[in-house]
Amino acid sequence: MKQILLAEDEEVLRMLIEDTFEDENYMIDVAADGGEAMEFLQNNRYDLVILDYMMPVYTGLEIVEKIRHAETNKHTKILILSAKSQEFEQKQILETGADYFMAKPFSPLKLLELVGDILNENS
């Protein structure tokens, strides 16, 4: 089964995404900030990491950089969620090492569809 880490500091959105994914039988670990996300990353391997761009402790981009420079989780697919959706911001996110970008607000079902596509690429 594919392992997913979600790091999102907005509680309602985090719970909505978690419930949506659990309803589809995904294995998902959930972090409320960048610090918790880093703890999960140090102790687990993930097929996909979904990161909010703006979080306390570490931002999504800081976590992307740490993932890409570490041996573990180096080849993990990374999806950034952000309300910062202008073209130059998306370019910066992808140049930092994220594989995918999704602008907020979004439909949880669209996120689920994108995640399904991402994880099926790796099968």
TrEMBL record:
Q: Does the keyword Iron apply?
A: no
Instruction: List keywords of the entry alphabetically.
Output: Phosphoprotein
Q: Where is each Response regulatory domain found?
A: 3-119
> Is the Cytoplasm keyword given for this protein?
no
Leader sequence segment: none
Sites where 4-aspartylphosphate occurs are at D52
Mind telling me which InterPro entries this protein's record contains? Bact_response_regulator (IPR050595), CheY-like_superfamily (IPR011006), Sig_transdc_resp-reg_receiver (IPR001789)
Which GO biological process annotations does it have?
phosphorelay signal transduction system
UniProt-listed Pfam families: Response_reg
Q: Which domain of life is it from?
A: Bacteria
Q: Which PANTHER family match?
A: RESPONSE REGULATORY DOMAIN-CONTAINING PROTEIN (PTHR44591:SF3), STRESS RESPONSE REGULATOR PROTEIN 1 (PTHR44591)
The name this protein carries in UniProt is Response regulator receiver domain-containing protein
